[in-house]
Write a structure and sequence with these properties.
Elements (H helix, E strand, L loop, with lengths): L18 E5 L4 E5 L11 E19 L2 E21 L9 H37 L4 E4 L4 H13 L2 H24 L3 H6 L2
Parallel strand pairs: 1-4, 2-4
Antiparallel strand pairs: 3-4, 4-5
Helix pairs in contact: 1-3
Length: 193
Amino acid sequence: MSFYPVWADECLQYKITPKVSLDVPNASINVSRPTEKMSFWHGNVLATLVDNYELITDMKNVDGGTCVWLKKVKAQVGYKDFLVHIDARHTPESCGYNAILNHEKKHIAAYMSVMDDMKKDIKVAIADAADFVMPVFVPYGGNFAKVIDGMNMELRAHPNLILMKQRIQAAQEIRNNQIDIYESGADLTNCVK
């Protein structure tokens, strides 16, 4: 038995390719009629994109401390909450209110379709990022929570995850712009005739 602590490089023998599971959060839709004046003709959707990563680690006690390595990532990526704003001058369930709400629901469907179409690419990006998280040597008395937080930060900072979120944002902007280009607004126009 050695009297010298194991150096961080010696933890590399425990490096594995982490497994990745990906779930999409359950989305909720809420409608608000803000008191501030907004466009009579247009609603607005605020979408909350979440990307949560639960890291499952394994560890092995070695001379002088513990080697900790990433075993699995349980990821949750997707749109969780949608808040639809409709001008307060539209009474709920009125023709104008329903026309705007139906239009905004098309935008929500666009957000959700982006996640459906990109699910495989998202999982690959997470797997690539997880594979770059290296084992860590924690000396006796070290802070394991801080080590796991550091691994999570390393995962989140990986260029593939940053690029993934940018691609999601770009795809939803393109789809939402297409909806606004192709929608004539006839449903709402017919309500105010």
